[in-house]
## 1
Amino acid sequence: MEYAAPTAGLIIAAVLFLIGILTVNDLAARDFKITISGKVGPFQRGVLVAIAVLFFVASVAGFYWLANKPSGSGNPPSPPNQSEPAQKITLKLVTEMPDDENVVQQTDEITVGTAHLTLTVNRDNPAVSNVLQFDDMPQDSEYSVEITYAKQDGSTEKFSGNGTIYVADGLTYQVFLRGDPPQAVLERSV
């Protein structure tokens, strides 16, 4: 069945070639002498022969392609092997200094899936962002966040939280404290 189209092309090429060379008078002759004569002019015959040659070349190319195509090329693609890199997903994480005047520095320890990132902000650098890269397909992933506030009096205060976020290329999440008692969360930002 694979060779049906090239075979049909060869048949069409042969018919067009014969029509271009032979005339109605030639085909009706009892002894099948081939003579180039009749009412069809040489230009029309040349066009038919040229079209026949195109069909012939296309058919031969089709046979060649079918004979040399990779095995299994008609089957659905197989899953990527280990040598092919998976799709890279970049997830942006953002944090900002809280409005609390007693906080001099904030350190956020963020884990998404198996990736880990630390973001630190202070009064000189009140907002910071960084990215995590994943070699997976977009998916829901578990996360955990721990926020540590360093205060002016030298004490520290810690908040933590966890949840699930959707990890896909180009998304941005920001670290917040939400709820009562406060919990650290990642919220998607636009």
Note: The mean pLDDT is 81.
## 2
Amino acid sequence: MDATTWLASNDYRLFKADKLAVIDTAQGNSITYDGMIAAHGTYANIPPEFKQGIDATTFVNPEDYRLFRGDRLVSIDTTKGNAVAFNDQIAAHGTYANIPDEFKRGIDATSWLSASDYRLFKGDKLVVIDTTRNNSITYNGYIAGHGTYANIPDELKRGIDATTFVSGEDYRLFKGDRLVVVDTREGNSVVYDGRIADHDTYKNLPSPWTS
């Protein structure tokens, strides 16, 4: 898995290379789309290189849906015909003004837990931005050093591929074919640690998606 976006319970998007899958978790985890990124209407106006694959995504709100690739950032306004509202370097977007230079050159994954808790991952490093306080950095260190990730396997402390924040009880981290789910409201306990394919949400995905 390269990236994931939880837009709503009936619109959970997964990215792998130039492919996109959409799961409706409200209807038995049925697959409502499985095809090319380029063929899905939301992404009609993004640059060609983004249609070939992305590194990470952040869904802030329908007017601000962000896609990352290398040092580039594109933001889509899904309320205005999926118009591209921003297309430039990560460093040129105000949200990321204070992040370390290595993160401006590209990231591996993001987690938008709230406006005051926006997390970026790169290798074994984690940065947390508070967008309500002039995009100040509230954490800049190792994944392993942040309390949320205290109980995850060492493999994931060294880096992750993607994340999905469903709720405080269901915070998902992906690495290879492995999925770990953290319950942040119960001492950051790990409530699932296994293959992506064995988790109920992903049971209907074709095998290339879960390998």
Note: The mean pLDDT is 97.
